[in-house]
Amino acid sequence: MARLVQKFGGTSVADVDCIKNAALRVKAEVDAGHHVAVIVSAMAGVTNQMVDLVNQMGELPDAREYDSVVSSGEQVTAGLMALALQDLGLMARSWLGWQVPIRSDTQHAKARLMDIEVEEIGTRLDRGEIAVIAGFQGIGADNRITTLGRGGSDISAVAMAGALGAERCDIYTDVDGVYTTDPRIVPKAQKIDKITYEEMLEMASLGAKVLHTRSVELAMKMGVRLQVRSTFVPDDGTFVVSEDEIVEQQEVSGVTYSRDEAKITLLRVSDNPGVAANIFGPLADANVNVDMIVQNVSENGKTTDLTFTVTRTDLKNAVSVLEAHKGEIEYDNLTADDGVAKISVVGVGMRSHAGIAQKMFQALAEKGINIQVISTSEIKVSVLVDEEYTELAVRALHTVYGLDAD
Ligand code: ASP
Ligand code: MG
Predict the structure, then answer these.
(1) Ligand 1 center to residue 293 CA distance, Å?
(2) Which domains does the chain have, with CATH numbers?
């Protein structure tokens, strides 16, 4: 009989009724013949409360005690879920990270998983017992509780599915899948049936925040098939799988946007070896993440202009770093603009279809939208535009790549 991992996020276990409802979703899989391991998050809002309590104890808390406090929400849900399952006549017990054990490194509050011993859980699963496992937590070599970083229970679920050799890892949440774009902007957006890990990673880092990025990376590495689905409706969700499972490749699978963008231009930067290093070195030291970069060839061989983007929250910091290093960098002038948005089209189909970028530029031109910066990867084309055109651009692109629902 096949093993299955079902993970329930905070909104799926928000209160006792929700937990009972989630337990029914588990029962349905057990009745369908699966051996199930359940991973739970804390009830919605609980982890935030815990973080808040820790912060009230003072600045710079001991991260080991932070972990001890903030991991507690999952303990509560795991116990309650086991009770709900028992109530349905099923065999179930709760497991904390250290009881499994789920081993991590000792970087408290942002630990990385090392390995999971699944022997005992595996034996019990095979006997028909359901394992309800607290997500988000592990145990370090220092024998203390660790947490994996906020939103980390997705990572727990994928790692457990990999270790158990599960047929699939279902991530239950409050949306019914991954959409071709934001339905609030494009009412004709459609739920995607199947998407590749790589596309999901691009979409996730671009703002489609249904799955923790690290969990998708891990699923790709371990070959764990994922499904993002709703706890509240019975339908299939979106499957996140490897590329060879997708028979017919679309040109573009999704259109994403991000308003958390700002553009910095350095005018008349001296055109010498080492200049880019002088600019981006201090920014990296100041923890500023740089995204798109364009530099022109210089006309006179002496100076050139350089434009790049950072997040809006980093803009002030970036500007002050650049001003402080004006001497080494040698530029004339700096301009900053936070009225921009990044629009991207994503699809593994780009590897096999030509002209996808051109189609994007054409569609934007027809709407009179000026492109300020362009960047590409193997499966993504991004453009920076004036923020006020965000919706217009997303809609136009969604239509032009044939993604609108009928
Ligand atoms: N409860 C944790 C958090 O809120 C982990 C999770 O929900 O994935 O960050
Ligand atoms: Mg969560």
Answers:
(1) 34
(2) 3-174 (3.40.1160.10), 261-337 (3.30.70.260), 341-400 (3.30.2130.10)
